[in-house]
Automatic annotation (TrEMBL):
Name of this protein: Pyridoxal 5'-phosphate synthase subunit PdxT
Keyword annotations: Glutamine amidotransferase, Hydrolase, Lyase, Pyridoxal phosphate
Cellular component annotations (GO), alphabetically ordered: cytosol; glutaminase complex
Residues forming the catalytic site: C85 (nucleophile), H176 (charge relay system), E178 (charge relay system)
Cited function: Catalyzes the hydrolysis of glutamine to glutamate and ammonia as part of the biosynthesis of pyridoxal 5'-phosphate. The resulting ammonia molecule is channeled to the active site of PdxS.
UniProt-listed GO biological process terms: L-glutamine catabolic process; pyridoxal phosphate biosynthetic process; pyridoxine metabolic process
Pathway(s) the chain acts in: Cofactor biosynthesis; pyridoxal 5'-phosphate biosynthesis
Protein residues bound to L-glutamine: G53, E54, S55, R112, I140, R141
Amino acid sequence: MLKAGVIAVQGDVAEHADAVRRAADRHGESCTVEIVRTAGVVPDCDLLLLPGGESTTISRLLADEGIDEEIRAFAAAGKPMLATCAGLIVASSDAKDDRVATLDLLDVTVDRNAFGRQADSFETALDVTGLDSPFPAVFIRAPAIDEVGPDVEVLATVDGRPVAVRQGAILGTSFHPELTDDSRIHGLAFFE
Ligand SMILES: NC(=O)CC[C@H](N)C(=O)O
């Protein structure tokens, strides 16, 4: 039985918990979900989700709780992680914003709110490397990825800008894969 941790200091938690359970099911795996609000949980997890929300708030709370160092150690151990939207911003190496203490897990520079404000949220059928048909990608005040390091693979783009990347065992998306019935991004991150 795998243990999936969903970082829940702020942001959309229940949807990720559902999506990872559905993805595990499809791949004949089973997993329990741990909601992570304090230190001490991440080290016991086999896979980790870093959800969207507000990256300034998330990064501050992670540091306050001492969860930031545990996530770094988790990544350093090569365990799989999915970081979405604000989670991607927090996982990046540079958010070009002093209020976000990035974890430097993905060698990318991000541009917060690059696709506009809440009112500019959109859904698009996105071609993603590793999926055999387009993924319904929901963008909500989403970041774009500006620069990617040499070890980063770009899996999807919108208007030529990367919106899904992979580096080692970490997958990052600008969009919210947990907000559709389609759990293939969670499958890609953890079970393939
Ligand atoms: N949906 C989201 O996670 C939005 C991210 C938010 N705009 C931020 O910069 O943190």
